Amino acid sequence: MTMANAMFLLLAAMPFLSLLLLSPSLALNQDFCIADLPRGDTPAGYPCKPQAGVTADDFYYRGLNTTGPTINPFNIGIASAFVTKFPGVNGLGISAARVDFAPGGVVPLHSHPGGTELLFVVEGTLASGFISSATNQVYTKTLYKGDLMVFPQGLLHYQYNLGNDTAAVALSSYSSANPGLMILDFALFANNLPTDVVSKVTVLDELEVRKLKALFGGSG
């Protein structure tokens, strides 16, 4: 084989080599890594619990079998199976959550900086949508029992219950063990930024900002 042919083959193989090197699912060099939560998180994830101490319970979680804590004033309950509550998903690039909507319940505009979300409607009917970052285009759908909708990583999205007298339930899966959660209302009005600063950066009246800070527990 000539040097030129060898270089051509190497260049042709580069995309496949990159995939093997960079794909998290292919880069695992051990079966699992149960998160050792007390040792703290790192940029590479939680360190592994010693394998001698791993049991079947590390791969099992009952936290989604009931409604999670209520988030006011939105009339929803959220139970999560992120790595901080389900250490078995550490390093596997997956996690889950359950959302229970009371009549009129709303998941307000929020984002998951660390992962894409796939939402499945278990019961009820939901209005749902997300906003693109490039053009602020809004993509909305009405979701019925059995429907799926995907929300790309980092984009603002929402859901709310369309049933006036009925509850709704949805399950979400994520492409990260710890996708993160930033709710826009809390980010804006549960902080200690001075009211005049929030007013300037949101173009809201200062009186309205004070009302919202009081509602969401902010100060300043």
Automatic annotation (TrEMBL):
CDD domains: cupin_OxOx. Oligomer (believed to be a pentamer but probably hexamer). Residues 1-27 form the signal peptide. May play a role in plant defense. Probably has no oxalate oxidase activity even if the active site is conserved. SMART domains: Cupin_1 (SM00835). Transmembrane segments: none annotated. It holds the Pfam family Cupin_1. Residues 62-210 form the Cupin type-1 domain. This is Germin-like protein. Oxalate binds at residues 112, 117. One of its GO terms (cellular component) is apoplast. The keyword Disulfide bond applies. Mn(2+) binds at residues 110, 112, 117, 157. Disulfide bonds join 33-48. SUPFAM superfamilies: RmlC-like cupins. GO terms for molecular function: manganese ion binding. Keywords: Apoplast, Disulfide bond, Manganese, Metal-binding, Secreted, Signal. Its main location: secreted. It is found in: Secreted, Extracellular space, Apoplast. PANTHER family: GERMIN-LIKE PROTEIN SUBFAMILY 3 MEMBER 3 (PTHR31238). The keyword Transmembrane does not apply. Belongs to the germin family.
